[in-house]
Amino acid sequence: MRNWKFAMASTILGSALVLGACGSTEEAATGSETEETTADTASDEAVVEGSVAGDGSSTVAPIMEGIVEEYAAAQPGVQVTVGVSGTGGGFEKFIQGETAFSNASRPIKEEEAASLEEAGIDYTEFLLAYDGLSVVVSQDNDWVEDLTVEDLKKLWVEDGTTKKWSDINPDWPDEEVVFYAPGTDSGTFDYFNEVILEEEDLVKSATLSEDDNTLVQGIQADPNAIGFFGYAYYVANQDTLKVVTIDGVEPTNETIESGEYAPLSRPLFTYANNAKLAEDPAAYDFMQYTLENAGAMADAVGYVALPQEEYDKGLADLEALK
User: Fold this and answer.
1) What are residue 31's phi and psi, to 5 degrees?
2) Of the candidates 229, 246, 265, which is a domain's last residue?
3) What mean pLDDT value characterizes the chain?
4) Per the UniProt entry, what is one GO biological process (predicted)?
5) 41 has a pLDDT exceeding 60
6) pTM over 0.70
């Protein structure tokens, strides 16, 4: 498995990930007869062709980026496309029947589930990994080390005032805070809104983006900036960002898995269209590969793998859809 943490740090994800492969004509022409014989005698079940479309959370994207690229090598006859329009944007496409799976950094909402029922789409929720939503500042920020949940709410809630660092601690600079946050279609936005803002409005001055790399770059460049996003994006950029402990607890694999990093620890999901899994061998095969490799890929990109029994349960639920 390639070094996915390095790959994340050095590569900016585009608006959609399209990874698929077909063996080159030149390679096929120069292959030995032995290789051709081996391929001919491979079981038909191992050969899958087709295309599979997904969309959704940019937080889940690092896991899917790695899985899709490695799956392309395992099944070159299948092209998998994965958009990153945010959890909410992904569910919109899922409800329209445009995608076979939808990645999410929060559980599906009641209204989304109702829309799927109205559209006649049955689905299955699969757990992929744990994340610790990370609050970060520039490494040039030498005053913030720890914030409480109450501090976060005071900073991020829109109350008609201009927020300054000195509002939190009078010993901190009398400088305006610069905010960066995931876009409103993001499950990360929804989660932060629920557990920190308690459904109040986010500061209007915040720069919002569905692309977490845009947030990373903005925070890196400004000592007065603060932002939040998935743990893997902090891990991939920890040489240029500083993570803020919350109530004295730093996000780590151990604190995220144990739940000690509360209330910002959360599960990550993908939701799959049952009919597409049952009827499309390519969709089924890709989802099976995803569940078999999600734990290793989560560890590789900086998230936290689930206990193996959770992946086994997902595989059993998938098997039941055959």
Assistant:
1) -65, 150
2) 265
3) 89
4) phosphate ion transport
5) no
6) yes
